Amino acid sequence: MERVPERVLISGGGPVGLICAYALAKENIPVIVFDENSELQEDPRAATTHPATLELLADLDLVGKVIEQGLICPIFRFWDRPTGNLVAEFDHELLRDDTDYPYVVQCEQFKLTRILVDLMRSMTAADIRFSHRVTSVSQGDQCVSIEVDSPNGINHFEGRYLIGSDGGRSTVRTEAKIPFKGFTWAERFLVLSTPFDFEAQRGMCHRNYISDPEEWCNCFKVAGDGPPGLWRTVYPEAADVPEADLLTDEYIQKKLQNFFPSRDKYDIVHRNLYTVHQRVAATFRKGRVMIAGDAAHVNNSIGGMGLNGGIQDAVNLAEKLIKIWKSGASDSLLDEYNDERRTFAIEFVQAQTIQNKNRLEAKDPKIRKKFLDDLQSIAADPKRARQFMLKSSMIEAMRRIQDRNR
């Protein structure tokens, strides 16, 4: 019988796949990462890194580089658009006794992928292949086999395990015949990035949620390529309006001026419109195939849970594979990965992000007033504010998993 190559195959070279590859390669476990793009993608997607995730990055000796390339943001605020009033401010300093990282770091995910690729260049256990797209998956009792479309044609690879971190339209998930259950929101999200200084000109902190029954907005600062940084704003848009119409200069200027009137025209450095889903895979493990990140679960971006949940998937899965590989643990640990991370995705990330969206867009005056009154009341009480932030920072849910594993 031909010997199965002792390696882990990873489809998808975004932050989730690369975190998993880096954690395994640090332990000298051979990995091959296949990414369909010709190089790392530098589009400005997720940026928020919560305290619970910063703890995991610290364990991997990555947190210093992430902080260096991002912005430390200790506070976040909720605003009421109709009145212009500040509803509530939450300061992560209340978590000083709960974590070494009582703040959020705004570091765009493409910076994290650059950090990881640079570190893995010198690792003999890591092999990253761009312009390689996984097209089919099959598995037996001893190995996983994949076909990969590469610049040299179709190639075949085998390994002990395959990790699908290839996004919401995951080929690995599809090939493994894993259902992706959930729903799609009626609205799309419009993302606009500008160097306009919302802090100096509008009194914003670096993370803001602006509630409105007709048209809410999120407003965040990211480091960009350096000072003065960029501000990213997010708005809901109707599904029946052509995308081309929503991305015109005229419409975008009107959108920003409607929210934040200015005598000057806004400089727009990035614009994007995307469909928003709330979905969780029926299982995160099928035999020797595991899925993680957007391949396993997707959600709306309000609260910054998606990237964080994916990184946490990657670390959890890597820890279990290391135990199997190096300590001879049973691969039933991978069933625990499925149980822990799927439960986390359903009971925390899905529930929290849906609640976040409902809070910002509530139309019924009584329900809306209750949301805002509750936020104001919680922020005014340090004990309740701490509990609120233990949840929003993902610490509470992470601690539950950690306690379960002790």
Notes on the structure:
With 406 residues, the chain is α+β, with helices and mostly antiparallel strands. It has a domain at 8-74 and 107-181 and 278-358: FAD/NAD(P)-binding domain (3-Layer(bba) Sandwich), CATH 3.50.50. 38% of the residues lie in helices and 28% in strands. The chain is built from 13 helices and 20 strands. The chain has helices at residues 15-26, 51-59, 63-69, 109-120, 171-175, 198-202, 243-246, 249-259, 306-327, 333-361, 365-380, 382-392, 395-405; strands at residues 8-11, 31-35, 48-49, 71-73, 75-80, 85-91, 104-106, 126-130, 133-139, 144-150, 153-159, 161-164, 180-194, 207-211, 217-222, 230-237, 270-281, 285-286, 289-291, 297-298. It has an 8-stranded mixed β-sheet, covered by helices on one side. A hairpin with a 5-residue loop joins strand 14 (207-211) and strand 15. The radius of gyration is 22 Å and the shape is globular.
